Amino acid sequence: MTSEIEDVFAGQTHNLSHQLEEEDKGTQYLSFDVGGEEFAVDILSVQEIRGWENPTFLPNSPVYIKGVLNLRGTIVPVMDLRTRFRFRNEKYLDTTVIIILKTVAGENERLMGCVVDGVSDVFNLEESEIGDVPDYGSGVDSRFASGVMTVADNAVTLLELSNLLSLDLIDHPYTGDLNV
Fold it and tell me: What is the rounded distance in angstroms from the CA atom of residue 128 to the CA atom of residue 144?
């Protein structure tokens, strides 16, 4: 009887060990929908996910900066990724959320809220499974993407947060101005 119990316990230990190994493979990413396309960021860059709320408007800001939010005493700019990436649909639905992302610029940590159509999934992926961003030529700015990956047979673009959230790129020609 003791041998049977030891065998069951050993099997459970092996299964648990195998599950932990699987979870430790690669990096975790959060994927989300923007204009019908899938994007992802490293889960460690996600500060929090908030339901949609109208931010406080900032005069003379780029069209894709919707305003600012007060996040427990910290003023956080809010960027609508649909406008930033020149998607036409800007409907705010029940699934619309603001993902608060953080990036480090020098010694400073920067927070930015990003409006997305909805959160999709959290998944693990090895760095070797991330492909390079295709070269589209001079008409497409690929500085906001650091790679492309396949998740459940769907292409997912990995965002380059250091560029996307950079205040230095506010006057960048790809400002989301829909009249261009």
Answer: 20
Please write the tens of the pLDDT for every residue from 14-59.
Answer: 444 444 444 557 799 999 999 989 999 999 999 999 999 999 998 8
Give me the DSSP letters along 80-139.
EHHHHTT-S-----TT-EEEEEEEEETTEEEEEEEEESEEEEEEEE-GGGPBPPP---TT
30, 46 in Cβ contact below 8 A?
yes
Which pLDDT value is given to residue 22? 47
For residues 62-66, give the mean pLDDT: 90
Neighbours of 116 (CB within 10 A): 23
Instruction: Provide the token pair at 41.
Output: 């960021």
Q: Which residues contact 178 (CB under 8 A, 6 or more apart)?
A: 63, 83, 86, 88
The class that CATH gives domain 2-169 is mainly beta
Enumerate the domain spans of the chain. Answer: 2-169
Residue 168 structure tokens: 């230095």
The answer to whether the CB of 101 falls within 8 A of the CB of 41 is yes
